[in-house]
Amino acid sequence: MQAFDELAETDTDSARASSTTGAPIIGLAGARPEVDRVSGRPKPLTIEPGTVFALGDGGRMDVLDTSHQLAELRACVEEIRDRAAVNARLPAVSLGTVDPSDVPSGYALQLSLGPLDSLVDAMHLARAHKYALLLKMVQRIHQAGRANGWPQGAALPARLVFGPHTPTDRNAILEEVVKGVTAGVLALETGIRMLQDAGYPIDDAREEVARITERRRSGETAPAKKLVSSTYPAP
């Protein structure tokens, strides 16, 4: 919270400094301003492009330059923002303040998202027990209301599985699953769960495995189609 307060105050100071930089304060000495005939006081000077002031001997014009302070304040804003991101475990990549062209590789991008991954995992772990109780309560409500097709008896263990919170390369994961299942180093069920975690629209892994197995069996037992060749007379 202190970092966010400092960030807000620095933004305010930066806005004030930018106003004095865009419209600087000018000290004019040795000029003869026009006098108001009614009040007898000098009229305020208006500085515009092309304005010429007639200065007397030893006259000068001093301009208050706050551009250096503005640059320092902007650098301070970036420093406080980075410090707040580190304390909150929100890297600059997740905040969208990093140009994608500045990231050297996808592996470096994945490493930079490590603090965010640990933060999300800690938040999920803190609520894992509550989610289990919530799902258990939902089952008991369905049993008490005798919902159609809902089994009676003890509540089944259930847990809530979250999808990826960062963009994933679905094509790469699909290729990895296909190679692993084909080579026999991954079970079909494991591959289906990997596709589920990647965001593929698979509701039930067991049903998906059953469908794939049934299609394989039906493809093996299906009779081979006979190709009918046409005979053309020789010229």
Please, could you describe this protein's structure?
The protein is mostly helical and 235 residues long. Helices cover 54% and strands 6% of the residues. It is built from nine helices and two strands; from the N terminus they run H-E-E-H-H-H-H-H-H-H-H. It has a two-stranded antiparallel ribbon with strand order 1-2. Helix 7 packs antiparallel against helix 8. The C terminus is likely disordered.
Could you give the order of the helices and strands?
A: HEEHHHHHHHH
Total helical elements = 9
Biggest sheet features: 2 strands, antiparallel
Give the total of beta strands: 2
Helix content: 40-55%
Intertermini distance: 92 Å
From the helix content, strand content and strand pairing, which structural class follows? mainly alpha
How would you state the average pLDDT, rounded? 78
Please indicate the percent range of residues in DSSP E strands (runs of 2 or more).
5-15%
Ordered list of secondary-structure elements with their pairings:
Layout lengths: L1 H21 L3 E6 L23 E9 L3 H22 L3 H4 L10 H7 L1 H13 L1 H17 L25 H14 L4 H11 L6 H17 L14
Antiparallel strand pairs: 1-2
Helix pairs in contact: 1-2, 7-8, 8-9
Question: Quick summary of this structure?
Answer:
With 235 residues, the chain is mainly α.
Give me some keywords for this one.
single chain; 235 residues; mainly alpha; two-stranded antiparallel ribbon; elongated; disordered C terminus
